[in-house]
Amino acid sequence: xxxxxxxxxxxxxxxxxxxxxxxxxxxxxxxxxxxxxxxxxxxxxxxxxxxxxxxxxxxxxxxxxxxxxxxxxxxxxxxxxxxxxxxxxxxxxxxxxxxxxxxxxxxxxxxxxxxxxxxxxxxxxxxxxxxxxxxxxxxxxxxxxxxxxxxxxxxxxxxxxxxxxxxxxxxxxxxxxxxxxxxxxxxxxxxxxxxxxxxxxxxxxxxxxxxxxxxxxxxxxxxxxxxxxxxxxxxxxxxxxxxxxxxxxxxxxxxxxxxxxxxxxxxxxxxxxxxxxxxxxxxxxxxxxxxxxxxxxxxxxxxxxxxxxxxxxxxxxxxxxxxxxxxxxxxxxxxxxxxxxxxxxxxxxxxxxxxxxxxxxxxxxxxxxxxxxxxxxxxxxxxxxxxxxxxxxxxxxxxxxxxxxxxxxxxxxxxxxxxxxxxxxxxxxxxxxxxx
Amino acid sequence: xxxxxxxxxxxxxxxxxxxxxxxxxxxxxxxxxxxxxxxxxxxxxxxxxxxxxxxxxxxxxxxxxxxxxxxxxxxxxxxxxxxxxxxxxxxxxxxxxxxxxxxxxxxxxxxxxxxxxxxxxxxxxxxxxxxxxxxxxxxxxxxxxxxxxxxxxxxxxxxxxxxxxxxxxxxxxxxxxxxxxxxxxxxxxxxxxxxxxxxxxxxxxxxxxxxxxxxxxxxxxxxxxxxxxxxxxxxxxxxxxxxxxxxxxxxxxxxxxxxxxxxxxxxxxxxxxxxxxxxxxxxxxxxxxxxxxxxxxxxxxxxxxxxxxxxxxxxxxxxxxxxxxxxxxxxxxxxxxxxxx
Lengths: 436, 341
Hints:
The complex is a heterodimer of chains A (436) and B (341).
Chain A: H1 2-6, H2 25-33, H3 38-63, H4 72-83, H5 93-104, H6 113-130, H7 138-154, E1 156-157, H8 159-182, H9 184-213, E2 217-218, H10 228-255, H11 259-273, H12 277-291, H13 300-326, H14 329-337, H15 342-372, H16 384-393, H17 403-431
Antiparallel strand pairs in A: 1-2
Helix pairs in contact in A: 5-10, 5-16, 6-7, 7-8, 8-9, 10-11, 10-13, 10-15, 10-16, 11-13, 12-13, 13-15, 14-15, 15-17, 16-17
Chain B: H1 2-24, H2 27-34, E1 37-42, E2 50-51, E3 57-58, H3 60-73, E4 79-84, H4 89-94, E5 100-101, H5 109-113, E6 117-119, E7 124-126, E8 128-133, E9 147-152, H6 156-167, E10 172-177, H7 180-188, E11 194-198, H8 199-207, E12 215-217, E13 225-227, E14 230-232, H9 236-254, H10 262-268, H11 272-277, H12 284-287, H13 294-302, H14 305-312
Parallel strand pairs in B: 1-4, 1-5, 9-10, 9-11
Antiparallel strand pairs in B: 2-3, 6-14, 7-13, 8-11, 8-12
Helix pairs in contact in B: 3-9, 3-13, 9-13
């Protein structure tokens, strides 16, 4: 019996066989991902048809691109000569001829190096904020960058931005002086009041005085000469940089037990969120003029930036409030139990966690803000998408051009928005500390 | 608390004083003090106002800004061009951000009275027309019954269209569009049978097509669109400056004064009206608060009306507009300036 059965027992393992054709490689992937059921199969076929249709429609047009021409009619002539009569092609020559206008608007051409330098320095200033592996000392440059950027873009006396920065130093000094004497609350008030008084009454004369002693100035550029992407970046990045801290303050204000602070924050957030951005822009550009004395030249870009910052801050405040609400009560209690005061608790325990939770919401608010900068066209500023494009189309050479400028501007916007989105994903995965 | 009430009152008083000042100051003086003319122009309209590749504004409307700056400062470059949109142009003017508006704006009753503009004249007589494809087989706007028509929303053209079809007992389907560029695209894509806007715009649009010979502009002009510069209501001195600068350009063409011969005529002309216009005799400029040679400088800025027309929108340009109604009254047009006396 033993011997008879033993012939049926293998003494060695069977060699591994190749999987069936339908269960391996590309076929398996296609089966599982594209044709896993009848419905999915139909959708896949439909999808392929749509993509093919789009490619067939657009690819020939793109393949017949012209980069060197002086006008649209010249473009058409070149296309007709190369590919025969009656075909259409993309005329990128318009971008080639007008790209300085798309990038810089009407910024004086011999000063193009200034916005370019400002942009390079912006990257330097932003880098330590985005990547914590860089030396922390670079943050000092990030702090003074707004003044540097302002001076490079608008020019004028160097003392104006210096005196503006001095306001913050004065605020800091006020805290240091008042806090030991009169406590935290009065110190906070002094920290706000002293710089405001400085900016309102003393900064201007001080800048003038210093300018007369030691004149250092760049050629001034006026706001109406801004346009195109320099305008979008100026408004977008300033908006992003200032709306985050303001939004966080508003979120804290809304959580606060102090009656006035709480109600003011709620009122502000609800009012701003209840009004379309365009309304705020119109208010800034038109309504304010009726109230200001004639001859006051309250810079239009500054007004727009203020409105954009307020608008984005209200949204950021709600996003951050969501993050705060998601924190377990125990975190607040733990902070109290450690004996931390309010600001220390926020800085060391609450905010790091709340902001981490809010990253996707904050970044999508920023992306929205950046794209909303094109709305400034409605107050007569030349945004890249419509303002500059309309101006380009209004020249006799380029009238009749339609898709090319939109595609170009859209591509640049996509580049930046996609970059922001990727960074937020990187940040999320880096800060991930849970074990899901 | 007391202090905040005090500050609030102070702020309110300042604002009221500011508002009062806005009514009281003469625009001419403000412009002279500023050293620059803030001229509200179109954000971009072929032939009328558009920046070139290096950012210099050019066009038919822009030339009038330059002429006014020439009349005031003797220097046509002292203009700040402020692009205005069709939705904010009037507020820009009433709020004082611009000194004059020259943006293809139709002079209508309600704009002149209710909106508190002062139109100081007409620099271009336009009218609404239609463009259709040749193969539609239509030769008159009267045959457009039942057609789909591309039309810019919120403009006088929209109202004119409705009036015209109602008066002729016809129906149409409107395809609303936002801008001229979008209208062209819709029309070319076949979204509508006909495209309607001001005749000057139609001509410019057709000229930019790849196949202009396949499109025809119908002969009917269905509305009056007198386009002209506007200033704030209630500042007649400033209105006079703009009005008579424009008249000077028209008169210059009538008297045969061109940018080429103007210096010669200023010294040698025996025509008394030319002498008065160019400041050789009398001092008309002094009466409107300008130098005696104000008109000379205004004409030098870009030539007389005819020269400006020919250089920006005339038949030698790609836009190719004929003078038509915009010819001198002696040539069967409507340009007729009151005498310089």
